[in-house]
């Protein structure tokens, strides 16, 4: 099995109070190392060439711009769902539907 090579990678950290911040970024081998380290620590990876281009323009320690809030928020929310994490007050409508056959 061949190893996947990443052209570029940008890591974001989200603390829940401020906008996500760029914590690592790189191209080529460094991108591969960032992705490998993230996977090693159970961090979900999202591949999107256009988003990657936008994020690669940011500097280390810089918060994402307001124009990216919605797309990044959706990715964070989706990653939480994939991990089985839900807010305390979240109610799954599909579990409340009683279908009688």
Automatic annotation (TrEMBL):
UniProt keyword annotations, A-Z: Bacterial flagellum protein export, Protein transport, Transport
Signal peptide per UniProt: none
Gene3D superfamilies registered for this protein in UniProt: secretion proteins EscU (3.40.1690.10)
Pfam families: Bac_export_2 (PF01312)
UniProt keyword Transport, yes or no: yes
Function: Required for formation of the rod structure in the basal body of the flagellar apparatus. Together with FliI and FliH, may constitute the export apparatus of flagellin.
Family: Belongs to the type III secretion exporter family.
Protein name according to UniProt: Flagellar biosynthetic protein FlhB
Gene source species: Rheinheimera muenzenbergensis
Organism ancestry: Bacteria, Pseudomonadati, Pseudomonadota, Gammaproteobacteria, Chromatiales
């Amino acid at each position: 099995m061949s190893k996947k090579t990443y052209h570029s990678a940008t890591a974001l950290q989200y603390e829940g109070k401020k906008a996500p911040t760029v914590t690592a970024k790189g191209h080529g081998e460094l991108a591969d190392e960032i992705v490998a380290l993230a996977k090693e620590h159970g961090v979900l990876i999202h591949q999107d060439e256009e988003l990657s281009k936008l994020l690669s323009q940011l500097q280390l320690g810089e918060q994402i711009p307001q124009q990216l809030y919605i797309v990044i928020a959706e990715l964070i929310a989706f990653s939480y769902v994939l991990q089985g994490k839900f807010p305390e007050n979240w109610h799954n409508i599909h579990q409340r539907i009683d279908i009688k056959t």
